[in-house]
Design brief:
heterodimer, A: 379 residues, alpha/beta, Peroxisomal Thiolase, Chain A, domain 1, two-stranded antiparallel ribbon, 14 helices, 18% strand, B: 137 residues, mainly beta, 5-stranded antiparallel sheet, 3-stranded antiparallel sheet, 6% helix, 36% strand, binds zinc ion
Chain lengths: 379, 137
């Protein structure tokens, strides 16, 4: 894909984040979509493309009253929205549509109008993982951690620092769910969920949503907000079964999507001013730093523990507080994208001064899928 | 009130030989006749070279502990926490999920790379799970 041909011209989250007992899941989609459309100064009738995950595009298009000529229902978990951005950019460049709305919302906490997630007993997961007592992401996502730690020499204290540093970022963000400072000791003494991980190393469970609007870069100048250009993109999938990953020492999906985006963007790691790595659990930023090529995996734990990703550090990471402290409705990728767009617009609560390039990396399932988007505010 | 039942696998035409094997006290894997690749989970073709000429064989049942969590909460129906959910690496190459039987469910007892051997846990007349326990001797 060619660089900077498509831009984000509308971006918004739901009016409220956290516990939203007065809205169903599709209404959360609509709330975010209407906020994004207002942010872009558009009318509903201007939208000719729609993408969403979990909920179908037809559900959201009909509920909003949109008549699309391009749809994308890619649903590969929490990074689906990174893939939507990539697909929408290609579709706009190919002339299939002009203005794409991407929505995410999940009534993850209040569970109103939320489709049930289930694993059929005759699926491969149902036959070869469910019988051994896996029960939701906290029992599955951390399974690779002990192997990763042993191979790369990572300590429990270093992984605990991921949560500590992200809470420092969250403290700067009025919309963050958890803002009180925490220490490594707090993390390592918090309630055990699935050894080696404790509750402060697991994402929050909240309600909320977000939406993005993309159009071609040549039209983007005419919108009310500063355009945020798509500089590079990457995507991949590996396996829906965490037990069947090629290795626990890295993620193949990360290693495919990340470098693809860097190559497309034509940038090196030193050019990155701001970084988002989807942190459903505290080990993901370590996998991301290694697999995206910022440093060898062996150095990722020390890099974070030394404070390089905290406010004032040389590589600001997860500046909204992340899934650990900001919010996590179930598919956090949309919130990571929103924070990258805010940073590129220069309006983030914890704004990184003069940031020009933001890398936003997402995970889907338990390392099942991955999407990377590189944004810039310079064309 | 009855205990909530643990999740039970339901075989498909492609996996029936595997579940017939565990019921007979055998861990069965597949090997590609064309490229010798050994793979899991079961399917009637080779995911390495796409050949449909594959054979079922009885695995050694030897493995080592690749990684695990000790799940505390929430517990799956039919499980009493804390319990380990492990991924074991078979001597033949493939990895599979398992619990670790006959072993304290603690970080001290569950040591990465420890030697394991297959054990069969019968759930009912149709389904026997392949499980692993510390290897004897
Ligand atoms: Zn083969």
């Amino acid at each position: 894909m060619r660089r900077n041909q498509v831009a984000v011209v509308g971006a918004a989250e739901t009016t409220e984040l956290g516990i939203i007992p007065n809205m169903s899941q599709i209404q959360l989609h609509a709330d975010a979509a209407l906020n994004a459309i207002a942010d872009a100064g558009l009318k509903l009738s201007d939208i000719d493309g729609i993408a969403t995950a979990v909920e179908t595009p037809q559900q959201i298009a009909h509920y909003l009253g949109i008549k699309p000529t391009w749809v994308d229902g890619t649903s590969v978990g929490g990074c689906s929205f990174m893939l939507h951005v990539r697909h929408a950019a290609a579709a706009i460049e190919a002339g299939l549509c002009k203005t794409v709305l991407i929505t995410h919302a999940e009534s993850g906490k209040s569970m109103i109008g939320k489709l049930p997630r289930s694993t059929p007993p005759d699926s491969l997961n149902g036959q070869f993982e469910s019988p051994f007592g896996v029960f939701g992401p906290p029992s599955m996502f951390p399974i690779p951690v002990l192997r990763y730690m042993k191979t790369h020499g990572i300590t429990h204290e270093q992984i605990a620092m991921v949560a500590v540093v992200q809470r420092e970022w969250a403290a700067k963000n009025p919309r963050a769910t958890m803002k009180a400072p925490i220490t490594v000791e707090d993390v390592l003494n918090s309630k055990m969920i699935a050894y080696p991980f404790r509750i402060l190393q697991c994402c929050l469970v909240t309600d909320g949503g977000g939406a993005l609007i993309l159009t071609s870069a040549d039209r983007a100048k005419d919108f009310p907000n500063k355009p945020v250009y798509i500089l590079g993109t990457g995507e991949s999938v590996e396996t829906p079964m965490v037990s069947q990953m090629e290795t626990f020492n890295s993620s193949r999906a990360f290693k495919t999507a990340g470098p693809l985006a860097f190559k497309e963007a034509g940038i090196s790691h030193g050019d990155v001013d701001h970084l988002m790595i989807y942190d459903a659990f505290a080990h993901l930023p370590l996998f991301g730093l290694g697999d995206l090529g910022f440093m060898p995996h062996e150095e990722t734990g020390k890099f974070i523990a030394d404070g390089n990703t905290r406010p004032g550090g040389k590589l600001p990471l997860n500046t909204n507080g992340g899934g650990l402290s900001y919010m996590h409705s179930g598919m956090y990728g949309m919130y990571a994208l929103q924070e990258s767009v805010r940073q590129m617009r220069g309006i983030a609560p914890a704004q990184v001064k003069d940031a020009k390039i933001s890398v936003c990396h997402g995970v889907g399932g338990m390392f099942a899928a991955s999407g990377t988007i590189i944004f810039t505010n310079e064309k | 009130m009855a205990e909530p039942a643990r999740a039970k696998p339901k075989p498909t035409p492609e996996t029936q030989h595997f579940w017939d094997g565990t019921a007979a006290g055998e861990l069965r894997l597949q090997r590609c006749d064309a490229c010798a690749h050994v793979y899991f989970p079961p399917r009637p073709f080779c995911p390495s070279c796409a050949s449909r000429k594959v054979s079922v064989f009885k695995a050694s049942g030897k493995a080592k502990l690749y990684s695990y969590v000790i799940n505390h909460r929430p517990a799956a129906p039919g499980f009493t926490p804390p319990y380990a959910i492990a991924v074991v690496e078979l001597d033949e190459g493939p990895r599979m999920m398992s619990n670790i039987l006959d072993c304290p469910q603690t970080p001290e007892a569950l040591v990465l790379d420890m030697k394991l051997e297959v054990a069969f846990e019968k759930l009912d007349d149709k389904i026997t799970l392949p499980q692993f326990r510390p290897a004897k001797g």
